[in-house]
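Researcher: Hi, I'm a grad student and pretty new to this. My advisor asked me to get structures for two proteins we've been looking at. I'm not sure of the right format, so I'll just paste the first sequence and hope you can take it from there.
Model: That works fine. Here's the first sequence with its structure tokens right after it:
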Amino acid sequence: MRITVGAVGVFTGIVSLIGAALAAEMTAADIKAFAIGKTVYLETTAASVTGQAGQGILHWAEDGTAIYKTPTGAIWTGTWQMKGDLLCTEWKQRPPAPCGRWEKTGDTVSIVDSATGQTRAKVVKTAPGNPEKLGP
């Protein structure tokens, strides 16, 4: 009887973990509500589009344009679009990069490279509009 109860507990735990992992991926609607028209403050990793870890600030405007203050302070400009549940940004300052998959675990939102599975950045906070006045 104890073995059966233990096995059921382990099975339930595994099913819960699988369900949580599936629920963590954000949809296009989730990403738009969370980031578009806002300024997103990031803690980037070496797997980011700049290849540098540090703090970045990104503004994805509702008109499909994007402005990024990279960890080095350089300003990048480009355009964005949703492809399914991936946010794809093309920067004028670099060759095309794979799209970003957004994942939410608890209160933490991460941007993951859709080709490599490596985490590009974690969102530190968001703010409505473009309070940093990011521009080219």
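Researcher: Oh nice, that was easy. Here's the second one.
Model: And its structure:
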Amino acid sequence: MGTRVARSRIRTNPNSHKSLLQWRLSLNLSQREAARVFGFSQGKYSRLERGVGVVVRDEARKMAALTGVPPEVLAGVA
């Protein structure tokens, strides 16, 4: 069966993170667990973490609120 991510571990993150990788590692999450937080497949999350994936503006805002990673970084603009 799949791994469940404890909701208490995933909240709006007050820390500023420079990347999704930094955010994920700070919470000791697997890529699969991190992907589930956002409702993505592990593959899509992996592409985003490597900077080759694409998210729409609304997804970038939601992810930024949870991770502290600037939306420009998530959207691939910065």
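Researcher: Is there anything I should tell my advisor about the second?
Model: You could mention this: The chain has one domain: 16-74.
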